[in-house]
């Protein structure tokens, strides 16, 4: 009997290697969760596309169907959450208008065909579509750009322009909400540690942020050595220490919200 074919990663990152610590470091930030939940409106049935480990799924108040193509991510979902379906955004195995709403959290930059994926999400959703992503026009403002310009440049190229997302969601208006991050943000994506630069010395934190996967070990070591030197000398605080005094930070993170046929709510 022949062995089953090895499935390639659905996106540009192998989460079988880089996703093993997501459930520990990528815990939902409650301020973001409340915003997402509010924009889902009165929906009772919600599709979560590119669901990962299940962050931000409103399983306590709504019926959630999760789609996630990566086995490592599916395996880290809480046992109390619905089992995720092995599928990709571009080929959703659901009927037209099957769900009241849909959500897609930190995933659209992984889709191989953005327009096809957005069209599929619109096809199966009657009501609002809520997407959390990053605005590439603002990603270079994060302090890490001083130490890892290659990382920031690579990550910026991965993120689709907001105009492209809006166009793919339909002809109507699409609402874009800039998200402010608390100083103790619990969801460890790239800008979560805006006031905690020391977190990047934790390998688990880096492995829970796919941007670091594009930098080899030698490159990562160079970045960390430069950062440590500036932290030890006080240079980081001279440049960015004002961030430590802030309670929140307006990052490149945005919530994109479209209603039926792209009519923003």
From TrEMBL:
Q: Which GO terms describe its biological process?
A: methylation
- Domain of life (superkingdom): Eukaryota
Q: Which Pfam families match?
A: Methyltransf_11
The UniProt record lists the keyword Kinase: no
One GO molecular-function entry: S-adenosylmethionine-dependent methyltransferase activity
The segment(s) forming the Methyltransferase type domain are: 47-126
Which keywords label this protein? Methyltransferase, Transferase
Its name, as the record gives it, is: Methylase
Q: What is the lineage of its organism?
A: Eukaryota, Fungi, Fungi incertae sedis, Chytridiomycota, Chytridiomycota incertae sedis
């Amino acid at each position: 009997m022949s062995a089953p074919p090895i499935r390639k990663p659905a996106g540009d990152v192998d989460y079988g290697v880089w996703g093993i610590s997501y459930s520990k470091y990528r815990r939902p930030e409650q301020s973001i969760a409340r915003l997402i939940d509010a924009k889902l409106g009165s929906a009772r049935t919600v599709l979560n596309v590119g669901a990962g480990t299940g962050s931000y799924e409103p399983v306590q108040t709504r019926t959630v169907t999760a789609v996630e193509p990566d086995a490592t991510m599916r395996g880290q979902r809480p046992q109390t959450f619905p089992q995720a379906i092995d599928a990709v955004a571009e080929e959703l195995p659901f009927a037209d208008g099957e769900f009241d709403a849909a959500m897609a959290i930190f995933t659209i930059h992984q889709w191989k065909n953005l327009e096809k994926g957005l069209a599929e999400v619109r096809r199966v959703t009657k009501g609002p579509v809520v997407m959390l992503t990053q605005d590439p026009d603002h990603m270079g403002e994060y302090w890490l750009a001083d130490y890892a310009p290659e990382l920031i440049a690579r990550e910026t190229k991965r993120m689709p322009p907001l105009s492209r997302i809006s166009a793919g969601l339909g002809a109507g208006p699409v609402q874009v909400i800039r998200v402010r991050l608390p100083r103790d943000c619990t969801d460890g994506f790239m800008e979560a540690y805006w006031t905690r630069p020391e977190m990047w010395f934790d390998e688990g934190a880096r492995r829970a942020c796919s941007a670091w996967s594009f930098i080899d070990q030698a490159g990562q070591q160079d970045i960390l050595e430069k950062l440590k030197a500036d932290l030890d000398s006080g240079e980081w605080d001279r440049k960015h220490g004002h961030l430590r005094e802030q309670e929140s930070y307006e990052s490149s993170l945005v919530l994109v919200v479209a209603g039926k046929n792209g009519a923003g709510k």
